[in-house]
Amino acid sequence: MSVENETKVRFALERDLQAILEINNHEIKHSTVNYDYAPKTLEFQNYWFQEKAKAGFPILVAERENQIVGFATYGTFRPKPGYQFTVEHSVYIHPQFRGKGIGYSLMKELISHAKEKGFHLMVGGIDASNLNSLHFHRKLGFQEVGRFKEVGWKFDQWLDLIFVQRPL
């Protein structure tokens, strides 16, 4: 894996799950980045980790000074065979470490991994209010391909979802 700007990107280990859980739960509780309502448990995060491993999908973590500051993964876009060459990704950065190139380091490795595995296209769903994520994805070569109006509901408001894609 790589080291950029003092950030080490590597495959996640079980010992990283508590940190991944904390980053994930922060977004569930405080943002519309993740449309879940209830925080996840460590048991759930472990199940998620095991299922990703069984399916051969990577979970990457970004580490700075022995602290997990972000993670990224991809998985099945849709379960039908015709979608087998398309993956959907997620990338989450600890709030105190945003804007420091960590997301870029994670995504660079994630895209490289997907290419090596023979995938054709990577997609992502971005809450329309998250302009920073949309700009970030554009810099990585993703293009907006669709907007779904009021497809989500969280914090007593309707949420619009933007889909982006990038050929691999």
- Specify the number of helices: 4
CATH class, please?
Alpha Beta
Percent in helix: 25-40%
Mean pLDDT, to the nearest integer, reads: 96
Strand content: 35-45%
CATH fold-type name: Aminopeptidase
Identify the overall geometry: globular
Largest sheet: 8 strands, mixed
- Number-wise, the strands total 8
CATH architect. name: 3-Layer(aba) Sandwich
- Secondary-structure element sequence? EEHHEEEHEHEE
Q: Report low-confidence residues grouped into runs of 5 or more.
A: none
Strand order of the largest sheet: 1-2-3-4-5-6-8-7
Radius of gyration: 15 Å
Descriptive report:
With 168 residues, the chain is an alpha+beta fold. It has four helices and eight strands; from the N terminus they run ββααβββαβαββ. A hairpin with a 2-residue loop joins strand 1 and strand 2. The chain is globular and about 40 Å long. The two termini are 19 Å apart. It comes from Algoriphagus halophilus. InterPro entries: Acyl_CoA_acyltransferase (IPR016181), GNAT_dom (IPR000182). Keywords: Acyltransferase, Transferase.
Mind sketching the topology for me?
Elements lengths: L2 E2 L2 E5 L5 H14 L11 H14 L3 E6 L2 E10 L9 E8 L8 H15 L4 E7 L3 H9 L3 E12 L2 E11 L1
Parallel strand pairs: 5-6
Antiparallel strand pairs: 1-2, 2-3, 3-4, 4-5, 6-8, 7-8
Helix pairs in contact: 1-2
Organism: Algoriphagus halophilus
Keywords: Acyltransferase, Transferase
Pfam family, one: Acetyltransf_1
Provide keyphrases for this structure.
single chain; about 170 residues; alpha+beta; Aminopeptidase; eight-stranded mixed sheet; 4 helices; 8 strands; about 35% strand
